[in-house]
Amino acid sequence: MNAAPITAALLRHQARRAQNVPTVSALVGPRGLGLRAWRAWAEVDQRPCAIAFSAELIAVLEAWVGSAFSTATPAERAVEWLAAVTKRDAEALAREVERMTRYDLDVLWRALPIDPHAPGAIAAHMILSDRAVGTDPHPAHFVRAIASTTDGLTKVVRAITALYPPNEWPALLLVPAPDELLPALRLLESIATTEPRVPVALALDPDEYERFGTKYPDARVTAFIREGLVEVRGVSGNELNERLRGAGLEPPATAVDRLAADGLADEVATAFVDATRAVRAPTATDLTSDFRSVHEEFLFGQLESMPQTAGLFRPNRALEFRHGNQAAEADLLAETLKLVIEVDGAHYHLTADQFRRDRRKDWLYQKHGYMVLRFLAEDVVSDLELVLNTILEAVELRRASAHPTGAA
């Protein structure tokens, strides 16, 4: 995947949005690569990114609002909004609001020089009322309270865009199931029509794109995705085989097939070649600036390119407990799921003492509530399918245990 032309296309789309032209970017290609490209563009544009895997209205809005809340505390933005409306100094007003009760806020709101029932006013009042009783606003509570009335989507979008500056409006990407494609497009069209400057996009496979255009050739939403088409192409299996053979390496066929099927970014393909070379001729210096080994770098890159795991793991993360005389550190950590991946290279996991050290670390992980998956570096190359499937199963298991069926 060559990121430069994709980023350029997305920047053109954002230029259209800046001119108030409703635009839905359609990232057509392997879904994981579409997701990867959208996150990369959002980083270039220096804005937060919200990803949703469903077309269900409340879930999408919660993801979008939650991403906005992560950029700055809602209370800060609510006070800034109130200062602009009342034409008062924000710092002085913040100190005054901090001492207010909910009754005081109600009195202040009745005196506002604007409609107190406008979405921005409702949102600011809700946020500051929560603060007055010592609670932080939660995205789910915020969305459900505002979206419970008629035109809920419009009110939530207008509330966030009233409180937050445009550069903090999250870039929203939907990665829906094929049977949710039509409602997903309609939802994105509604957001883009409500506030054209909000960046919204859809990631879908080429076959889905073609089938949708054939089934709904004259639909308005079809025109949206045709106008917003951005082709996302990964490194093919043949191209990866050529790179491996060019490096004097015999391609591991199963791994190459899996990578091509999932979607392979150019930089991840490069990391895979390096990891394969390191397996064939390991040295103690197979390290990169951000990873302990090229195998970790490759595995992290591919997990970043898969919809189920994109943005989930972080490399070399310090943990809250000690291992020996220093803080424990995980090779790859999914903090929200307390899931750890350890990649054991040949040079550091061969002796009996090293084996004992790893087992003690595994016990510490379990003791502190972590699930740990431990793989040999060579298996990350030669048995990649099993490695990736195991990680996906563990992710699904941890997510299910965090949100059991029937839980409140």
UniProtKB/TrEMBL annotation:
InterPro entries the record matches? DUF559 (IPR007569), Restrct_endonuc-II-like (IPR011335)
Instruction: Tell me where in this chain the DUF559 domain is found.
Output: 330-395
Superkingdom as given in the UniProt entry? Bacteria
Which SUPFAM superfamilies does this chain map to? Restriction endonuclease-like
Gene3D superfamilies per the record?
VSR Endonuclease (3.40.960.10)
> Record's Pfam families?
DUF559
Q: What is this protein called?
A: DUF559 domain-containing protein
Q: Which organism is it from?
A: Gemmata palustris
